[in-house]
Amino acid sequence: MYIESLSLKNYRNYEELFIEFENKVNVILGENAQGKTNVMESIYVLAMAKSHRTSNDKELIRWDEEYAKIEGRVQKQYSSLPLQLVISKKGKKARLNHIEQQKLSQYVGNMNVVMFAPEDLNLVKGSPQVRRRFIDMEIGQISPIYLHDMSQYQKILQQRNHYLKMLQIKKQTDQTMLEILTEQFIQVAVKIIAKRFEFLHLLAKWAGPIHKGISRGLETLEINYKPSVEVLEEQELSKMVTCFEEKFGKVKTREIERGTTLFGPHRDDLLFFVNGRDVQTFGSQGQQRTTALSVKLAEIELIQAEIGEYPILLLDDVLSELDDYRQSHLLNTIQGKVQTFVTTTSVDGIDHQTLKEASTFQVSSGIIQKVD
Ligand SMILES: Nc1ncnc2c1ncn2[C@@H]1O[C@H](COP(=O)(O)OP(=O)(O)OP(=O)(O)O)[C@@H](O)[C@H]1O
Known about the structure:
GO terms for molecular function: ATP binding; single-stranded DNA binding. 45% of the residues lie in helices and 24% in strands.
């Protein structure tokens, strides 16, 4: 798939913008703080209804304005699909094919993107929260059911935490409500974990050979899910439910003392191993970077395998940071099959042949012009 056109209104430093793109490499060139990342972010937000940089949607609205609007037309195998997202202080409204969607979970997934930005190194180095966000966003792109389950999970988790807080303060003896909430919590939690296992399994299958290629055959990459309740990938859901029930039985007093839910998908993590060692702890900067790159390239293949089309690739400020070998590995992977956006302050670090075949756009103070 590829994005044919993008139009912005009051989006960050863009008052008004309309651009058309071709299905190839598009280079967005400009000095610092001109609006390169903002364009990439707007494409990402159009697809995911969420930014990769902030969870506060209001930041996306141009200062002193009431709303921001992103519109785009995506060319898929058989059709051209118009998408629209309006972000106001009251919330978000999404339209697909001009029809307003009641739920964002029905909207997300119609346009697929993979973003690779400098902060993606945090995928390896950062906190478990960063990795959970990654896994949730990525599964959400290919599974609307997962997005639905996640929003259910968040609601039940909040209610359960609220109730545990009440028990903590009031020292009530009647715990019937806690039992009901725990049962509901477990039912959704195991579905989420099973889906995460499945996704990581697929991701690892693609990432392994890619990582081997980038490391010139020297390194193996493994990706493992680390659940906070000891469940196994091959377990049936009913067995996972039993593990959870046992765990919650054991930690009930502690949970009431603390007034919060101590176990579940919101406390899980994933681990990356290179040659059998945890990259977060033992990996060099280069190995961590290669791991993040392998994971991103694997996502491209995974989405193609699941959806039947390649996603749009957004490379924000990373291409010129990669050494020649990694850059050419990346460019060979996407060659001719993935619409790619690249931001850079200078074309010097970018492969000549790629530049020759690419469309280039110059950005200056929120205005973009195609360079002939
Ligand atoms: N909500 C907003 N309203 C108006 N302007 C904004 C808003 N949010 C950010 N900006 C402005 O957008 C500009 C930053 O744009 P962006 O992050 O896209 O820069 P960039 O070209 O990618 O720069 P760099 O090369 O430094 O990464 C800054 O000048 C910033 O002040």
